[in-house]
Amino acid sequence: MNVSAAASLRLELSLVQPVLRSAAARMWHSDAGLPGRYRHYLRAMHQVIRASVPLMERAAARCERLPQDPLAPPLARYLRAHAEQERGHDDWLLTDAEASGTAPCELTGSVPPAHVAALVGAQYYWIEHSHPVALLGYIAVLEGNAPAPGLAGRLARETGLSQAAFETVRLHADLDDGHSADLDRLIGRLPLDPARRSLVAISALHTVTALAELFDRIATAPHVSESAHD
Predict the structure, then answer these.
(1) Which distant-in-sequence residues (6+ apart) come within 8 Å of 185 by Cβ?
(2) DSSP 8-state assignment for residue 103
(3) Is residue 143 within 8 Å of 85, Cβ to Cβ?
(4) Taking a C-beta distance cutoff of 8 angstroms, is the pair 101, 71 a contact?
(5) Do 90 and 49 meet the contact criterion of CB atoms below 8 Å apart?
(6) How far apart are alpha carbons 212 and 21 in whole angstroms?
(7) Local confidence band at 180 (pLDDT 50, 70, 90 cut-offs)
(8) DSSP assignment, residue 190?
(9) Could you tell me the pLDDT band of residue 146, with boundaries at 50, 70 and 90?
(10) Rounded to an integer, what distance in angstroms lies between the CA atom of residue 145 and that of residue 180?
């Protein structure tokens, strides 16, 4: 087993995760702007998460066109199964948005900004022009940085929004640790050569940088006044 590949990736991510944690802390800072930032977060994360299943399906299909590649069959099986686990999570965000006073069409109809396209779009490039194993770096970051277990309750108290507006935060706090363990086991089983290990790490580090930028933009963006949602 290539156990060191999973351990090495986690070590690399541990060195840069303080950047992501700091950006998240700025986004969730307790002040009068927190309800607006949370609504912005829902919009941005819907733009990201609605791409998750299509990305995994695209990567699995690419694997299935690489029958001689020893990475391809186990990677395709993982991606197909994980896509089913993630299916519909973007709809959770629409439900949360409605509970927060935001019409779901504000999420589905908004144009994703360039920094969201950069976060997600790099994965399409690597899947098509390098190797679909790159997507594991992206998944490792998104699922390895699940919301803290108490975050949903704190946000509900401090924003004054309904508890029903935080179901996605609550559910991902419960689910993503198990998904991260599954991913580590997969990486441990895959016959990754140095080039593929490097690709997974590059994808992961890009994801950390782009996700931290997304959080910082939410933390500093102007927001619609609360009266617009009353």
Answers:
(1) 6
(2) -
(3) no
(4) no
(5) yes
(6) 8
(7) confident
(8) S
(9) confident
(10) 9
